[in-house]
């Protein structure tokens, strides 16, 4: 009864994580689809005008934040399922939960600066005239560079989170290892994107930014595909890890070895002793 209850709890937990990841993918797609992106993001006069004319700017960024919230919550649930695995997988799962919490905190700051503060400043700039317009433009540019700095650190943290959780998946036995390796690849791509943003901002003409952008069209493509695949795997349920021996060997190895030896006529010492004792009592 206790075992059945534990399996049921694990299944429900996995399905909760899968639902959160799926909601993260949907919210991310909706938020990104509402985000205006026609102009060069480093051409401030033109891109600020585009942002000022957007009625969906705040909604787009609230949608993006909802995507981050659901996605990181789903990853935390995943890490909970990985606890109790091998020692290295458990340590990686704890680190993954910490990294996910830090990433969500930075994501909240990023959306507050980009989605709310920057919008208010570009609206003020668009409505100002004369000397006030230059002052408003300078303030908007300052917030824009603050956004770029936070975006860089967010991508680094987000990528690190995926790498660590992917590592936990590859070290564990509950889920297929390929899903962990795919997470590691996504995470490394995001880390590269964060480094590129730190050095060149959002400069589309810069080959460093462009090359990492080709790999990391990822928030709407590769990353969402990985989260969708992970949600499907989690919805299918996780398998309990096989018991491990004190020396770290998998229980599956010892079970297979014992089966082969039994077929060859070997019996465990306790079984042989019991058999001998029973034979001696037989008249």
Radius of gyration: 26 Å
Q: Name the poorly predicted regions.
A: 242-279
Q: Structural class of the helix and strand makeup?
A: mainly alpha
Largest sheet: none
Q: How many structural domains in the coordinates?
A: 2
- Helix-strand pattern: HHHHHHHHHH
Average per-residue pLDDT, rounded, comes to: 81
Q: Report the principal-axis shape.
A: elongated
Count, helices: 10
How much helical structure, as a percent, in the residues? over 70%
* Strand-residue proportion: under 5%
Tell how many strands the DSSP assignment holds: 0
Cα-to-Cα separation, first versus last residue: 42 Å
How is the secondary structure organized here?
Elements: H1 2-34, H2 44-53, H3 57-82, H4 87-127, H5 131-171, H6 177-200, H7 207-215, H8 222-235, H9 251-263, H10 269-281
Helix pairs in contact: 1-3, 1-8, 2-4, 3-4, 4-5, 5-6, 6-7, 6-8
Summed up:
79% of the residues lie in helices and 0% in strands. By secondary structure, the chain is mostly helical.
Characterization of the model:
With 283 residues, this protein is mostly helical. The protein folds into 2 domains: 2-241, no CATH class; 249-283, no CATH class. Helix content is 79%, strand content 0%. It is built from 10 helices and no strands. It starts with a helix and ends with a helix. The relative contact order is 0.11.
List keywords for this structure.
single chain, mainly alpha, 2 domains, 10 helices, 0% strand
């Amino acid at each position: 009864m206790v075992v059945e209850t534990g399996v049921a709890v694990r299944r429900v937990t996995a399905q909760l994580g899968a639902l959160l990841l799926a909601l993260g993918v949907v919210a991310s797609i909706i938020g990104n689809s509402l985000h205006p992106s026609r102009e060069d993001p480093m051409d401030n006069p033109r891109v600020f005008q585009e942002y000022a004319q957007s009625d969906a700017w705040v909604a787009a960024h609230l949608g993006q934040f909802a995507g981050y919230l659901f996605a990181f919550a789903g990853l935390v649930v995943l890490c909970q399922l990985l606890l109790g695995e091998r020692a290295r997988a458990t340590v990686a799962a704890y680190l993954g939960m910490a990294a996910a919490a830090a990433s969500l905190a930075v994501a909240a700051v990023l959306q507050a600066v980009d989605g709310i503060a920057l919008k208010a400043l570009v609206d003020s700039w668009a409505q100002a005239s004369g000397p006030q317009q230059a002052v408003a433009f300078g303030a908007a540019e300052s917030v824009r560079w603050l956004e770029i700095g936070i975006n860089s650190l967010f991508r680094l943290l987000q990528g690190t989170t995926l790498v660590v959780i992917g590592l936990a998946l590859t070290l564990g036995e509950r889920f297929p290892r390929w899903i962990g390796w795919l997470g590691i690849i996504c995470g490394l791509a995001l880390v590269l994107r964060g480094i590129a943003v730190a050095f060149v901002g959002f400069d589309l003409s810069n080959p460093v930014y462009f090359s990492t952008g080709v790999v990391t069209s990822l928030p709407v493509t590769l990353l969402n595909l990985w989260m969708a695949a992970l949600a499907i795997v989690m919805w299918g349920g996780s398998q309990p890890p096989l018991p491990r021996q004190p020396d770290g060997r998998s229980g599956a190895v010892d079970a297979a070895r014992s089966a082969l030896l039994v077929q060859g006529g070997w019996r465990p010492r306790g079984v042989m002793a019991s058999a001998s004792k029973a034979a001696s009592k037989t008249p």
